[in-house]
Description:
alpha+beta
Amino acid sequence: MIARKLIHCSAAILLFIFLILLTSYFLLKTVKAIDEKCSNPSALNLDEVEQCLPQLNDELNRMKTATKPLEGQLESLQRQLVQIQVTIDNLVAGIAQKQKDLDVREDKLALQQALLEQRIKAYYIRSYLTDPLLVILSSFQAGDLFRELSYRQFVTREDRQIISSITTEVVNLLTEKEKLEKDKVRLAVIQADVDKNAKFLGGEIKKAKVYQADLSSKIVALTARQQQILSQRLASLHISRSAASIGVCIDDRNVSPGFGNAIAFFTYGAPHRVGMNQYGAKGRAEAGQGRDDILKAYYTNFETIKWDTNIKIKVQGSGEFLLEDYVLRIYEVPESWPMAALEAQAIAARSFALAYTDNGSGEICTSESCQVFKPDPKTGAWAQAVKNTEGLVMTSGGNPIKAWYASTHGGYIFSSAEVWGGGTPYTKHATDTTTGSAGNFGDLQSNAYDRSSPWFYCDWGSRSQYNKTAWLKSEEVADIVNTLLLIRADGSTSEHLYQTDKPNPAGTDNWDENKVKQELKNKSINPYTSVSGISVSADFGRGETTLVNISGDGGSDSFSGADFKNRFNLRAPANIQIVGPLFNIEQK
């Protein structure tokens, strides 16, 4: 019975393995096509990267979805295999004991067989002697004769019973020995099957995990490649990180581009958004918050302590400066700002310098890539802020934190993991408004602490022929939408869909709006010639645009905010761009 149960369990395991193999076959069949195109990220152009990333992400998610239940079933099967193994071990022990018992019985039977021969011989003799006539004719007396007759009948019956019992025992012993040998063979097969299945199941899950890790590494590589290409165009806007050198971003809403049915894309804040929002610190100080309140608003899991001011900071191309002398030469925010904002900036700058140089052992640059440093020390309010905060440093785990900051966050604070992928315990995600939340764009315009920044709500880029604005014509937006539709239908066309007023970065030909329309028609897709309606949906908890909705003569379509932003930045003319995750659309 137990052996049959084990065979049934083994059959169930084999069926499960077959399902794993079947699933793996279809997964790997799909993956092979993806790998051939996307396995070498450095050789891809951006559009190919954009095509590969969603495929690889989808594949990774599908693999995780496919393997997650298998992992759970594997754990269940492994538990069952352990139980089966315990049963097998008990069976082995039982069979071993049976073998010992049979060996003892066999030895006893060997002795009994010798006696059996004598018993059989005596049985036949007694059978003959117990003939009543022979007994009557013997010389026994009547009483003795009766006793002798009774005794011989008793012994004869006993011999008959012993002979029958021994014979049955021999037959049973031979039957059980034969069954035992068969059980040994079946048990060995089951044990080998269990061992093989346990090893195979573990190996399959391990291979799936390795494949997932490989996919993840490719996604990371492709994302890096994508960011490299996009950053080249973003750099052309010359966006300053520091509030002291911030330029003026013209709010084009009240400026006419010289044509009607115009559309512009406005971003909240500028790139970075990690750590302290400098204009947000100004707004908080103006609202009555002190330096500690400001720092706690932008960083987390830190403590402010006095640091050794005798440490020297090595400055690239400028020599060494004592810690406080170095901070006096930081040009990050205007001195006209409230003292609480200046003091918060001084503590952040001091902390950043110590963390960046590893407590003075390394060297720090003088540009916005690190923090702006000039040889001449500042005086006035900044000098007072430095004095008021002398030696104060934000630390985490006993070490100064790399207190990132930037001019304008657009109403949100982002963690380092969200922006750069490297998590830090002291950066966080939060809504930087007077209410601590936002439900719509109006809330941000009214309540964001950095709403006074000239970069709070901007459409980036311009064209001199259209009054130096970033407004686009309806047909230009329609062209961007058409490229999204074409890539959705055929990703291989992406290398032809860069902006048409500059050379193609992939070294091939750029398709103009008419060519794109024709390609769509060839695929039985209605292209847009003009856009009449355009709107966005946003996650105001995350601070990002999630969906762009389009309507026009081509019908209506929707695209994810991230996909639309990336395609916009590759196709839009001149240097016009969307520079952040949260953007809105204006029409006039």
